[in-house]
Amino acid sequence: TFINININKLLITLFRILLLARPDLNRESIIRTQARRTEIAIIFDASLYEAGGAAMIYHGMAEDDVKRIMQEPFTMIASDSGVRQIDESVPHPRGYGNNAHVLGHYVRELKLISLEDAIRKMTSLPAQTFGFRDRGLIREGFAADLVIFDENTIIDQATYDKPHQFPAGISYVIVNGAPVIDNSQLTNARPGIALRGPGRAVS
Questions:
Q1: Which of 63, 148, 160, 167 sits at a 20 to 30 Å CA gap from 14?
Q2: Apex CA 190: angle with CA 187 and CA 192, to 5°?
Q3: According to the model, what pLDDT value does residue 29 have?
């Protein structure tokens, strides 16, 4: 089963192909591969999803919009990236460097927002918005979820071509009081739990 699409319209925006079933097409863009339209068409074949699925990275946002929206007081900063297997496929680099990019680029380099406001947008604001009453602040009785970083060196290192790169400048990550990154090294601790909001049905 194929989906009929107009490739010429898709060329308006750059797409990057992430295809588990066809790793030879990973990192390609439709613009670079427009001469291989038959091969590109197969990524829309539903049968490929049974062999691992497909995804695309869309470069459709304007940087000026990102900067303007980031400065709004109600804007939260997070990533919708899923859990990744290291060195598998070519995912969006935000999965490794989203928050570090904000702290290093928009805060330190561009001075677009303050460090304090950026941290608020990443911690207490989303916790309050989604009703997590014991998270988002350093306060007695709250979950000890902490990231210890160097504000002078923190930066993302993941790129579109090499996305599996951890950010620089993070020394410790503590989840529920247990270190999961200790002196910039992963530990074997697994203290995380699923957070469920107040709307969850109680059985």
A1: 167
A2: 130
A3: 64
